[in-house]
Amino acid sequence: MKIAILGMGSVGRGLLEMIDGKDLGLTVTGIADSKSALLDPDGIHIEEVQMAKRERGVCGDKELSAADVVERGDYDALVEVTPTDARSGEPATGFMKRAIERGKHVVTSNKGPIALHFATLQSLARKHGVAIRYEATVGGAIPVMHTLEHGLAGNRVIAVYGILNGTSNFILTRMAAEGLTYAQALLEAREMGYAEADPTYDVKGIDAAIKLVILSNTIWKRNVKLSDVNITGIDMLTNDALRLAEEQHCTIRLIAEAVPEKGILRVAPRILPRTHPLVVENTLNAITIDTDMAGEITLIGKGAGSKETASACIGDLLFIRDIHARGH
Ligand code: HSE
After folding, report:
1. I need a labelling partner for 104 at 20 to 30 A (CA). Which of 80, 204, 210, 243 fits?
2. C-alpha distances in angstroms, 317 versus 77, 88, 96, 175, 314?
3. 49 to each of 4, 26, 32, 36, 314, how far by Cα in Å?
4. How many angstroms is it from 46 CA to the middle of ligand 1?
């Protein structure tokens, strides 16, 4: 399977490393970062691209851009892993649309386009007989979309609850365990590289709300928007509040919650018993899916990271290849 990659940040670099190190049957024929691009229908030499990025700061030819890769590249699937723009979803959405119109599959880790334009992108993909997959947008390495679509097929999903933001979970864990202040814990989280470029997205609950929108639209197809989510972040939480919760054998977690039957769509700090399945530590994510047949299923795993996000993208790519090979 031939793929073109847009984005050489942490996710793009992780993808290249995994594709180079594993025998996955994926050939990279196009790649672009924000300043340059490279095209080779026979397959790009991955180690040369990695070295160029490390030594020159660009992956390829400055005369070429992401648009050239999308328009002229010889690929079966576009892997769109550029940073999220949660306001417009651009330029990523435009690139995805063009690839779909060219009859190419799309795999993305980009939350903006999926939260904002999911219905449009899906109907365009259907029209052109291709797939758009976005496992990496929610829960990092956790295969939540595959679980919903396949493992839980035929179930009615009643509700989803989850810890969908690793940065705020890390901050809450550090505040409770080490007595760090909110500001100290945020600084540590940023140093670890998990936080968004603008960390207010993490601590004000916006990143978790974007992921809740993506999950809700995947499950219930109701086309909810970020503005439909009732959002409270963790930025006003004090050490005293956490200490009081801990004294009752409880703790505080930022919980994203969707229960359509009760009209609930919210992200807010909640007090939970320390033994609750959603009480995970540090940057872990956890998602509980409540269903009519299977009951409650809780998935726990790494919600961010270079290799972990690459895992979700590669899972999507290999799924598309298998389905496609069977002619579906
Ligand atoms: N900033 C996000 C988080 C990264 O902390 O969960 C993964 O989407």
Report:
1. 210
2. 8, 26, 15, 39, 5
3. 13, 16, 10, 11, 19
4. 27
Contacts of residue 148, defined as CB under 8 A and 6 or more positions apart, other chains included, come to: 157, 218, 219, 289
Task: With 0.90 as the threshold, say if the pTM is over it.
Answer: yes
Pocket test for ligand 1, best of 164, 168, 206, 207 (most atoms within 8 A of CB): 207
The answer to whether the CB of 217 falls within 8 A of the CB of 123 is: no
DSSP letter at 151? I
Q: Give the residue from 145, 139, 158 showing the smallest Cα distance to 118.
A: 145
DSSP state of 155: P
- The one catalytic residue in 22, 211, 221, 302 is 211
Give the model confidence (pLDDT) of 212-250 as tens digits. Answer: 999 999 999 989 999 999 999 999 998 899 999 999 999
